[in-house]
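Submission sheet (multi-component)
Chains listed below:
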Amino acid sequence: DVKVTQSSRYLVKRTGEKVFLECVQDMDHENMFWYRQDPGLGLRLIYFSYDVKMKEKGDIPEGYSVSREKKERFSLILESASTNQTSMYLCAAGKLYGYTFGSGTRLTVV
Amino acid sequence: GENVEQHPSTLSVQEGDSAVIKCTYSDSASNYFPWYKQELGKRPQLIIDIRSNVGEKKDQRIAVTLNKTAKHFSLHITETQPEDSAVYFCAASNSGYALNFGKGTSLLVTP
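Outcome: structure written.
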């Protein structure tokens, strides 16, 4: 199984700060994903990447960017954090037929 | 993009009863339909999936059915147990890369 590690379990940031959420996978998978999970809204795709330096917008990319400089690492960037970006962020990696999710980062923007 | 609707949002059953969760999708090109289970405080995990060339798939107490004509698929859990209590997400893929998830069903199994 692919192991997916998110660097922080909890983060508290101030409005306007630039925030980096890091995700690392320990297998050689091309595909990596960032989802946002909110109560009643399920899992919404922010961005995904199917190769190094490649990225594709998901359903809610506004206010976010991503970086994939190495195959094992996929970073989500909040350029200027806002309170409506308070959420649980889940990274996933792997083939379509079997994502592995990270444990999530609960981000609070105050 | 693909739109996945999931019902009900909450479901409460007694231990031993069956539970059914239904999902519909919008894109007829979608061809892969997994179900994920998320226990409280944990990451979502794949429990069963079905591809568009199959109508039904079963794994012990859980089964998934797919009706491509109607564009809906369902998760069936029989002989429910308290440890089945969790949030269940259906998903569909029309891209070959990313999954589009439903909003989730919170299942509570009471002893």
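Remark: Chain B has a mean pLDDT of 94.
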